[in-house]
Design goal:
By secondary structure, the chain is α+β, with helices and mostly antiparallel strands. It folds into three domains: about 5-170 and about 285-395, FAD/NAD(P)-binding domain, CATH 3.50.50; about 175-280, 2-Layer Sandwich (Alpha-Beta Plaits); about 420-510, Glutaredoxin (3-Layer(aba) Sandwich). It is built from twelve helices and 28 strands. The protein has helices at about 10-25, 50-55, 60-65, 100-115, 160-165, 245-260, 310-330, 340-365, 370-380, 385-395, 430, 495-510; strands at about 5-10, 30, 45, 75-80, 80-85, 95, 115-120, 125-130, 135-140, 145-150, 150-155, 170-185, 200, 205, 215, 220-225, 230-235, 275-285, 290, 295, 300-305, 420, 425, 440, 460-465, 465, 475, 485. The strands form eight sheets. Strands 7-2-1-11-20-19 form a six-stranded mixed β-sheet. The longest helix is centred in the C-terminal third of the chain and has 24 residues, at about 340-365. The chain is globular and about 70 Å long. The chain starts with a strand and ends with a helix. Bound molecules: flavin-adenine dinucleotide (FAD). Flavin-adenine dinucleotide binds next to helix 1, strand 2, strand 8 and helix 7.
């Protein structure tokens, strides 16, 4: 099979893109240099609008293991400061505590269901491009070979060879002034508080669960995940030397950070168990996300601190943004400039993550001036508007793409809707699993029934009633569930119908 798109890297973002391309009718091949999935675990969960995005592809239930739809999180943390989200009227911050290994397994399983070819043990080693396509050099188990495709996407992680081969710079900073240690452990039951799920550390006091906890000497976190309890510390001096990381090293670090002993033991259960020391970190953003027929995705395009868990929120939504646009290009219906909007829409989203992870790193740093800043920040967090601002920023709900249109929802992520259809109540997330553009006609007399003439091959029409007051009467949604057009009129007039046609044309090409 000649692929439309070669994806270098079967990490979470490469796999997500493969699923999106396949749903949109393009043929991807994924090259992964590892022969099997890595045992190392990085992310412990998903934070932000990505949870809704995965629900909108039918993947939330597989990841959560339950039948319940996602619910916003009652609390979270910003720079080791608690955020009380429960009191917000419109809380946009969703979380899903699932290890990255499991996320990758689910995405790989979904990609295989969609008949994506994943070639493990095949490493991208070179590339060249011309007006018609890209030639990829591959080192496979049976020797080197070449692969030709219309496009190449480098989803090959922070050290991306694709990025290097395209000569795309990766400016930013590399710091080596922190040392983080993380391990799965068993904590004696008498030290855990069944009421809060947190710890009572002798000689120190109570520590809530899942919260970065800053002291004068560093950061401590206790996270009792269903798969096992994790303990994490960050300090700003010392190094691990050359010796392998050990639980004793973590015990000593906890003693320095808390000034008290926490008598934990080795983890139980089959694992794989985490025992990790990381020194420093990188904050870098690719100069460009595109070089002709080559695009960068996920960590290949941006790396930053993992604080607040924004990596997969950013990368998986990059993939969902890119998938339908790239498929539209290879299927021949993309309007001019559509593919360039991948960079103009997603690079600012990455810049925002770089900004707030750096701000959080500043808030957890040592020193009396930081302690003073935290006192002030804590006072600001008493104002619900500040909490809402931070929650929207961390979740990515404050993103507004520059789409033409005056409705306040234009360019924003679609709200979480429940609709009444002829066959009963349905959540928006159940209508978007095919990843096709949707026009939701919620007008009382189905006023938009003819509005898709000329676009029916690319856009689906859903006629329904909104289940609550105050929602628009019509919404045009892109496959990534961003609003391309919306109306509040019970019967959109000629001018509004013209603006709908303009939105259809600029997102999905001319009528035909
Ligand atoms: C300690 C830590 C904790 C984190 N915690 C969180 C968290 O809680 N929440 C969160 O959202 N994010 C977290 N992140 C970030 C998250 O892990 C990354 O953003 C994510 O893994 C990026 O996915 P990716 O697919 O872009 O790249 P990667 O996961 O790096 O995958 C790239 C893939 O490409 C393959 N590859 C590389 N070169 C080639 C080549 N030449 N040819 C073929 N294949 C190649 C690699 O083998 C790899 O499989 C954390 C990161 C770290 C380091």
């Amino acid at each position: 099979m000649t692929p439309d798109v070669v994806i270098a890297g079967a990490g979470p973002n490469g796999l997500m893109l493969a699923c999106e391309l396949s749903l949109a009718g393009a043929r991807p091949i994924v090259l992964e240099r590892l022969h099997e999935q890595t045992k190392a675990n990085r992310a412990n969960g998903l934070v932000g609008q990505v949870v809704l995005a995965l629900d909108r592809r039918g993947l939330y239930e597989r990841l959560s293991g339950g039948a319940e739809p996602p619910r916003p999180s009652p609390g979270f943390v910003f720079g080791a400061m608690p955020l009380n989200l429960g009191k917000l009227d419109d809380n946009t911050l969703y979380t899903l505590p699932v290890p990255q290994r499991r996320i990758e397994q689910v995405l790989e399983e979904r990609a295989r269901e969609l008949e994506v070819e994943i070639r493990r043990g095949h490493e991208l080693t070179g590339l060249s491009q011309d007006d018609d396509g890209v030639t990829v050099e591959v080192a496979g188990p049976e020797g080197p070979y070449r692969l030709r495709a219309r496009y190449l996407v480098g989803a090959d992680g922070g050290h991306s060879l694709t990025r290097t081969l395209c000569g795309i710079g990766f400016p930013g900073v590399t710091k080596d002034d922190s040392i983080s240690r993380t391990a799965h452990v068993t904590v004696p039951a008498e030290l855990t508080d069944p009421a809060t799920g947190g710890l009572n550390v002798p000689g120190y006091g109570p520590i809530p669960p899942f919260m970065h906890h800053r002291t004068d000497h560093g950061l401590f976190t206790y996270a009792p995940f269903p798969t096992g309890a994790l303990i994490h510390t960050t300090e700003w001096h010392g190094d691990g030397g050359d010796r392998p990381m050990s639980l004793d090293e973590l015990r000593e670090s906890v003693r320095r950070v808390l000034g008290a002993d926490l008598p934990f033991g080795p983890p139980e259960g089959p694992g794989p168990h985490l025992l990790r020391r990381l020194v420093g970190g990188n904050t870098r953003l690719a100069e460009r996300f595109r070089d002709g027929r080559v695009l960068l995705l996920g960590d290949a395009a941006h790396v930053h601190s993992a604080i607040g868990g924004p990596g997969l929120n950013l990368g998986l939504q990059d993939a969902i943004n890119l998938g339908w646009k790239l498929a539209a290009e290879v299927r021949g219906w993309a309007p001019p400039g559509l593919l360039d909007t991948y960079e103009t829409e997603r690079r600012p989203a990455a810049e925002r993550v770089v900004m707030h992870t750096q701000a959080q790193s500043a808030l957890i740093a040592p020193g009396p001036e930081v302690t003073a800043l935290r006192v002030l920040f804590g006072e600001l967090l008493r104002d619900e508007r500040t909490v809402k601002h931070i929650a929207d920023m961390m979740s990515g709900a404050d993103i507004r793409y520059a789409l033409e249109g005056t409705h306040p929802l234009t360019g924003r992520p679609a709200p979480d809707l429940v609709l009444e259809t002829a066959t009963g109540s349905v959540r928006l997330a159940e209508l978007t699993r095919t990843a096709r553009p949707l026009l939701l006609d919620l007008t009382p007399d189905t006023a938009l029934s003819g509005a898709l003439d000329g676009w029916r091959d690319r856009v689906d029409l859903v006629t329904a009633k909104a289940s609550r007051e105050g929602l628009p009467t019509a919404l045009l949604l892109r496959p990534d569930c961003y609003v391309a057009w919306a109306s509040d009129s019970p019967r959109p007039d000629t001018k509004e119908l013209d603006s709908l046609r303009t939105a259809l044309t600029s997102s999905f090409g001319a009528a035909r």
